[in-house]
Structure formats: structure tokens, C-alpha cells
């Protein structure tokens, strides 16, 4: 995992003013290996489902947490993984305590050192609305150092809102997560998202695939992304 070094002071100010200092961003990884039909997940994803660190996930366990209203989406996601497909899904799960969690799941093919696809790997992002009401005023009155960046960030948020069916605050949290996790400026992440929009105009499925790819490869040199 990439070292989490400090982003620029302007980017940090944007995060602190808009999302709130210390606001927890719950993100964890998962993998599914085709050869052994084995799931793996990080302690963070285990916790999202209500389990202790080290709990071994299975298809049956994942399905047991499906929300009644999102049953089809969760089953389609798991089927896609087991059939070898990459996917993204915004759905709800119910943890072991009965709490409903709103999650965004993004994945791409998992490759070995030779480039052969051996599974699917990606992230769970808990976008459950637990923070204070989104403070848009901060963008307009307290961030003079990032006014120019605001437009592209808002465009990127809009794209994520459309593709993943999430709120403006949740979209910003996803952009912030990738910035912190990859040590790439938030504005740069937003610019890469926006750059994909004209390439797949009018095709929401292709746009979702491209945005999945951008989020998962933001830290990689352009020469090895494709």
C-alpha cells in the first residue's frame, strides 16, 4: 500500500473545511482468487460487516448480509466476481448488529507478475451518511487558495454522483480517499476523472468502467495504466 505522506496545504485545507477534521473515512480492500474460489478482505471490510479481524469471508457469508431492497444488486456483484468480471456497485449491507451500511464497491482484474488475470481485487468504501451536513459554504468563502480547483473538483464529484448513485459529500469522500491513499493531489485525481468524460459521452456503462479504472490506478504512471 502506498505511503500516506502529507498532501499540499491547500488540499488539506479543502479536506478539513469541507469534510471536517478527523472525519473517519472507512475504506478496506478485498480480493477473490479464481483458482481457489477464495475470498480475502481487510480488517476494515470485516468491521464493516460486523466481524472481528481475521474473519474469513465466503460467498455465503457475503450473501447473508444482503439488504432486502438491494438483494439483486449484491447477488449480481458476487456473480460477476465469481465469473471473472470487474464491476462496481453501490448498495447496502446489514452488519451483524443489524445496522444498515451504504457501501461503494469498486474492482478491477487482479493480475500476477506475468500479467495473467488470477482474480478480482478492489475496495469497499463505507459511504454511510454519518458526518455533519455538507458545508458547501466553506467552498465559497474560506478556500481562496483552491478556487480554480473547485470547478474541476465539482465536475468530478458530479460524475461520481451520476455513475455510483451517491451524494455530493460521499463523492468528495471518495476523491479524498484516493488522494490520501495514493499521495496524488485531490485536484489531480479530479482532473483525471473529468478527462475521461468526453471519451465515453452518452455511455454510462463505459463511463463507470473508466471511472473505476481511474480510481484504482490514480497512483500509476500513464505508461502502465492501460
From TrEMBL:
This protein's name? histidine kinase
Transferase as a keyword of this entry, yes or no, is yes
Top EC class of this enzyme: transferase
* Keyword annotations from UniProtKB, A to Z: Kinase, Phosphoprotein, Transferase
Where does the record place the ANTAR domain?
Answer: 133-194
Q: What is its EC number?
A: 2.7.13.3
Q: Give every PAC domain span.
A: 87-139
Is the keyword Phosphoprotein assigned to this protein? yes
Hey, what's the signal peptide range on this chain?
A: none
GO MF annotation list? protein histidine kinase activity; RNA binding
Reaction equation(s) it catalyzes: ATP + protein L-histidine = ADP + protein N-phospho-L-histidine
List the Pfam families: ANTAR, PAS_3
